[in-house]
Specification:
The chain has helices spanning 7-16, 23-29, 38-45, 56-75, 125-130, 132-145, 159-166, 174-182, 195-206; strands spanning 21-22, 79-81, 99-100, 105-109, 113-121, 149-157, 186-192. By secondary structure, the chain is α/β, with parallel strands linked by helices.
């Protein structure tokens, strides 16, 4: 879709400034997001398009997925930290002028790492695991956090579990975690991040600004 703006509108948008490149848009600008076009990401950064609205269910499911991973990490004696999004204004990297975003999990032990949690219906398992945009997001946050250790947590729910999430009857328990692990619906992928590749990709993304 073509967006036409009058000069007065362009001036107003320019005064507001260009938004930082977040992890969500990073993979999109690199052409790794099958759901969102590069052009839409650019227009969002320049405040021409409003931020894409997310179905509240997906936000709720994502929150449940993160809490399941928190429980898993506690059971495995990991030390980790999470942040209140509103308190830090959805940005763990306020000092970086160009890039930012909100980390899912900051792991400090047994070794320092960035944890990213992604969820889907179990029927979308292959697509979830193959989504390169999610990896790009995690790699960017690792480079900004100055740690090469990325842990991707993939959480997949059945239709029945998703109904319970919608109805607020989903129970976060050790038994639930064990069941999902046994059925390979919680999958962990450990990635050694190549900072040089990330910095090259950062420059590609910056070219759109």
């Amino acid at each position: 879709n073509m967006v036409c703006l009058e000069q007065e509108e362009i001036d107003k948008l320019t005064k507001k400034g260009v938004k930082k490149i977040t992890g969500t848009n990073f993979g999109c600008l690199l052409g790794k997001n099958s759901f969102k076009k590069k052009g839409d990401a650019v227009l969002e950064m320049f405040r021409v398009l409003p931020k894409e609205e997310i179905d509240p269910f997906y936000t709720k499911r994502g929150d449940i997925a993160e809490k399941l991973i928190h429980r898993l990490l506690m059971l495995q004696n990991f030390s980790f930290k999470t942040w209140d999004a509103k308190t830090i204004k959805y940005d763990n990297f306020p000092k970086d002028a160009e890039f930012g975003g909100l980390l899912d999990i900051g792991i400090s032990a047994p070794k320092r790492a960035v944890g990213e949690v992604k969820s889907a219906n179990v029927s979308r398992k292959e697509h979830l695991l193959a989504n390169e945009s999610y990896i790009c997001q995690g790699e960017l946050y690792c480079e900004l956090s100055k740690t090469q250790n990325l842990i991707m947590f993939y959480v997949m729910f059945t239709d029945e579990e998703e109904e319970r999430i919608k109805n607020d009857t989903f129970i976060l328990s050790k038994e639930q975690v064990d069941k999902m692990l046994k059925e390979e619906r919680i999958i962990t992928k450990i990635i050694d991040v190549d900072f040089e590749k990330v910095r090259t990709n950062k420059q590609i993304a910056l070219d759109y600004k």
